[in-house]
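Hey, I'm writing a tutorial for new members on how sequence and structure tokens pair up, and I'd like a real worked example in the thread rather than a made-up one. If someone can provide the structure for the chain below, I'll link this post from the tutorial.
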Amino acid sequence: MGKRQRGGRGGRGGRGGRGGKRQKREGWDDRKPWPELEKQNKAMEDYYKEQKIVPESEWDDFMKACRDTLPTTFRISPVCTFADEIREQLKSRFTDLHVEDIEMDEDDERLQPPKLIPWYPQELAWQMSISKKAIKRTPVLEKFHKYLIAETETGNLTRQEAVSMIPPLLMDVEPHHRVLDMCAAPGSKTSQLLEFVHAQCGANGVPKGIVIANDADLDRCSMLIHQMKRINSPSLLVMNHEAQKIPMLWAKAEDGKKTPLRYDRVLADVPCTGDGTMRKNVDVWRKWTPAQAMGLHKTQLQICTRAVELCEAGGVVVYSTCSMNPIENEAVVSAVLKRFKNCLQLEDVSKELPGDDDNDACDGGGGGDESR
């Protein structure tokens, strides 16, 4: 079998041979960038209208929010040594970023200084009114961009979407808890859970609790470990299992008997269609079909079921997605409640976060339910 020759008929260098000139294509300099993706999908709009996920009177506002640019959000690590100093810097050092005469064409937004996210505890979560891409490309924000990078690399800041911060907050994690994050990568929620476990002893202490972070993809586990190095916690264990098949661990008591090691808190942030991330992943507008959710429902149900099986009696299971679809949210939780009958209690967490009604940092979707 002969080898395929590189470079076409003329060997290396293309048709004209090595060193030959490449002919300039006609109209090369007149090429225009790809047109912006149209943020419309009639099938998706019709589907969600029928689902009545928002009142009819709010539909236009809802669709406008779905098409708006996602703000840049980040949070301060409460266990870092300089958490108080960073919080004060965000309050005072960058107030001059308010430039009324500068309009962000890319985001159709006025440049604003960092703004506090009101529902996150201890004034640790902040947002900018413009996108991450716009921050990189705006000259007046060059110093602020470098500041974000430097503080992120040292573990003082974590750049994380606001809606992603919500599920760990609802878990009520305490320093002595055993916590399982079933679908952990890339690790932003895992880092939150670790911070809660370290809340009383700080970054250098060793808490009684532990966070076990699992992901089904080995490469994503490597990325998770890389991200968690910034926290440098001895209370983290990373596993590589399919979430619906995570094995039960067993502990040996002093009398030699083995008992199942269940978890006080379990987070099942399951794989989903992600149609609630349309403000960031604009491809959702082009690719969305009703069949996508049906293809994932079985896996989501299996993962949520396993979460309940691994949870200690009296513990908390939080189920969440990045989707607005009831098939991926309410239908899964309903099936789990039916399967376990009187063993679970569904908790209403709609009022758990103060001030979240006015928050505009959250993405267009994300379902969450808490069961005890």
